[in-house]
Protein backbone atom coordinates (compact mmCIF):
# COMPACT_ATOMS: atom_id res chain seq x y z
CA UNK A 1 0.00 0.00 0.00
CA UNK A 2 1.37 3.39 -1.00
CA UNK A 3 0.98 6.27 1.41
CA UNK A 4 0.23 9.76 0.24
CA UNK A 5 2.45 12.52 1.56
CA UNK A 6 -0.07 13.65 4.20
CA UNK A 7 -0.07 10.18 5.80
CA UNK A 8 3.70 9.65 5.65
CA UNK A 9 4.91 10.76 9.07
CA UNK A 10 8.59 10.17 8.22
CA UNK A 11 8.28 12.52 5.23
CA UNK A 12 6.31 15.11 7.20
CA UNK A 13 8.95 15.20 9.93
CA UNK A 14 11.48 16.26 7.29
CA UNK A 15 9.42 19.10 5.79
CA UNK A 16 6.87 20.18 8.39
CA UNK A 17 8.85 23.28 9.38
CA UNK A 18 8.70 24.43 5.74
CA UNK A 19 5.52 23.12 4.18
CA UNK A 20 3.08 25.14 6.28
CA UNK A 21 4.98 28.45 6.12
CA UNK A 22 3.19 31.37 4.49
CA UNK A 23 5.81 31.49 1.71
CA UNK A 24 5.41 27.85 0.73
CA UNK A 25 1.62 27.90 1.10
CA UNK A 26 1.42 31.03 -1.07
CA UNK A 27 2.63 28.92 -4.01
CA UNK A 28 -0.96 27.70 -4.44
CA UNK A 29 -1.75 31.12 -5.97
CA UNK A 30 0.43 30.41 -9.01
CA UNK A 31 -0.46 28.17 -11.92
CA UNK A 32 2.38 25.79 -12.64
CA UNK A 33 1.70 23.48 -15.58
CA UNK A 34 -1.70 24.71 -16.79
CA UNK A 35 -3.68 22.25 -14.64
CA UNK A 36 -1.81 22.40 -11.33
CA UNK A 37 -0.63 25.06 -8.96
CA UNK A 38 2.98 25.52 -7.89
CA UNK A 39 2.33 24.22 -4.35
CA UNK A 40 0.82 20.95 -5.64
CA UNK A 41 3.71 20.58 -8.07
CA UNK A 42 6.37 21.29 -5.43
CA UNK A 43 4.88 18.82 -2.97
CA UNK A 44 4.64 16.10 -5.63
CA UNK A 45 8.25 16.67 -6.71
CA UNK A 46 9.36 16.65 -3.09
CA UNK A 47 7.47 13.53 -2.08
CA UNK A 48 8.22 11.44 -5.16
CA UNK A 49 11.89 12.45 -4.97
CA UNK A 50 11.98 11.60 -1.27
CA UNK A 51 10.63 8.11 -1.99
CA UNK A 52 13.25 7.52 -4.69
CA UNK A 53 16.08 8.83 -2.51
CA UNK A 54 14.90 6.49 0.25
CA UNK A 55 14.81 3.53 -2.14
CA UNK A 56 18.24 4.34 -3.63
CA UNK A 57 20.06 5.21 -0.39
CA UNK A 58 20.19 8.96 -0.92
CA UNK A 59 19.95 11.80 1.53
CA UNK A 60 16.19 11.79 2.08
CA UNK A 61 16.15 14.96 4.16
CA UNK A 62 17.97 17.12 1.62
CA UNK A 63 15.99 15.60 -1.24
CA UNK A 64 12.60 16.18 0.38
CA UNK A 65 13.38 19.71 1.51
CA UNK A 66 15.08 20.92 -1.66
CA UNK A 67 12.39 19.23 -3.75
CA UNK A 68 9.79 21.24 -1.86
CA UNK A 69 11.72 24.50 -2.32
CA UNK A 70 12.94 24.04 -5.90
CA UNK A 71 10.27 26.36 -7.37
CA UNK A 72 9.97 28.84 -4.49
CA UNK A 73 9.44 31.95 -6.62
CA UNK A 74 6.50 34.30 -6.43
CA UNK A 75 5.55 35.42 -9.92
CA UNK A 76 3.93 34.00 -13.04
CA UNK A 77 6.84 33.33 -15.34
CA UNK A 78 4.55 33.41 -18.38
CA UNK A 79 3.67 37.05 -17.68
CA UNK A 80 6.66 38.48 -15.85
CA UNK A 81 10.37 38.31 -16.73
CA UNK A 82 12.69 38.31 -13.73
CA UNK A 83 16.35 39.15 -14.23
CA UNK A 84 18.67 38.34 -17.09
CA UNK A 85 18.46 35.04 -18.89
CA UNK A 86 15.83 32.42 -19.51
CA UNK A 87 13.27 31.40 -16.93
CA UNK A 88 15.01 28.01 -16.75
CA UNK A 89 18.21 29.77 -15.65
CA UNK A 90 16.75 32.54 -13.47
CA UNK A 91 14.02 30.89 -11.39
CA UNK A 92 16.24 28.32 -9.60
CA UNK A 93 18.45 31.18 -8.38
CA UNK A 94 15.42 33.12 -7.16
CA UNK A 95 14.08 29.96 -5.48
CA UNK A 96 17.43 29.43 -3.73
CA UNK A 97 17.50 33.02 -2.49
CA UNK A 98 13.95 32.65 -1.14
CA UNK A 99 14.73 29.23 0.39
CA UNK A 100 17.70 30.70 2.27
CA UNK A 101 15.31 33.18 3.90
CA UNK A 102 13.26 30.26 5.27
CA UNK A 103 15.95 27.85 6.44
CA UNK A 104 19.62 26.95 6.35
CA UNK A 105 20.46 25.35 3.00
CA UNK A 106 23.20 22.73 2.76
CA UNK A 107 25.52 22.55 -0.27
CA UNK A 108 23.60 19.44 -1.39
CA UNK A 109 20.23 21.24 -1.14
CA UNK A 110 21.72 24.21 -3.00
CA UNK A 111 22.87 21.96 -5.84
CA UNK A 112 19.44 20.32 -6.01
CA UNK A 113 17.64 23.67 -6.25
CA UNK A 114 20.07 25.37 -8.65
CA UNK A 115 20.49 22.37 -10.97
CA UNK A 116 16.89 21.12 -11.13
CA UNK A 117 16.52 22.56 -14.64
CA UNK A 118 19.41 20.52 -16.05
CA UNK A 119 18.59 19.69 -19.61
CA UNK A 120 17.18 23.17 -20.13
CA UNK A 121 20.39 24.57 -18.61
CA UNK A 122 24.01 23.51 -19.09
CA UNK A 123 25.57 22.90 -15.65
CA UNK A 124 25.09 19.25 -14.61
CA UNK A 125 24.13 18.24 -11.08
CA UNK A 126 26.90 17.09 -8.71
CA UNK A 127 24.87 14.60 -6.68
CA UNK A 128 22.49 11.72 -7.29
CA UNK A 129 19.85 13.54 -5.21
CA UNK A 130 20.07 16.46 -7.65
CA UNK A 131 19.49 14.10 -10.57
CA UNK A 132 16.55 12.54 -8.74
CA UNK A 133 14.81 15.91 -8.24
CA UNK A 134 15.66 17.00 -11.78
CA UNK A 135 14.11 13.89 -13.32
CA UNK A 136 11.12 13.80 -10.97
CA UNK A 137 10.46 17.48 -11.73
CA UNK A 138 10.27 16.66 -15.44
CA UNK A 139 8.10 13.60 -14.77
CA UNK A 140 5.67 15.59 -12.61
CA UNK A 141 5.47 18.39 -15.19
CA UNK A 142 4.53 15.87 -17.87
CA UNK A 143 2.06 14.12 -15.58
CA UNK A 144 0.43 17.43 -14.62
CA UNK A 145 -0.19 18.29 -18.27
CA UNK A 146 -0.84 14.89 -19.85
CA UNK A 147 -3.30 13.40 -17.33
CA UNK A 148 -5.81 16.28 -17.52
CA UNK A 149 -5.46 16.46 -21.30
CA UNK A 150 -6.06 12.72 -21.58
CA UNK A 151 -9.20 13.08 -19.44
CA UNK A 152 -10.45 15.87 -21.71
CA UNK A 153 -9.79 13.82 -24.84
CA UNK A 154 -11.46 10.78 -23.31
CA UNK A 155 -14.50 12.85 -22.28
CA UNK A 156 -14.78 14.33 -25.78
CA UNK A 157 -14.57 10.82 -27.26
CA UNK A 158 -17.40 9.64 -25.00
CA UNK A 159 -19.50 12.70 -25.91
CA UNK A 160 -18.80 12.14 -29.61
CA UNK A 161 -19.72 8.49 -29.28
CA UNK A 162 -23.08 9.44 -27.72
CA UNK A 163 -23.81 11.92 -30.53
CA UNK A 164 -22.89 9.41 -33.25
CA UNK A 165 -25.10 6.72 -31.76
CA UNK A 166 -28.19 8.92 -31.42
TrEMBL record:
It comes from the Bacteria. CDD domains: HDc. The lineage of its organism: Bacteria, Bacillati, Bacillota, Bacilli, Lactobacillales. This is HD domain-containing protein. Coiled coil: none annotated. It comes from Vagococcus luciliae. InterPro entries: HD/PDEase_dom, HD_domain. Residues 38-142 form the HD domain.
Amino acid sequence: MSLNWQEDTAYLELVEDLIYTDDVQSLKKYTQHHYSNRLEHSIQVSYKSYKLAKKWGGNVRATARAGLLHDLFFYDWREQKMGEGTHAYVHPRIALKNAKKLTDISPLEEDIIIKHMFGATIAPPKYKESYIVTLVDKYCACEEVIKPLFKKVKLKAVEYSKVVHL
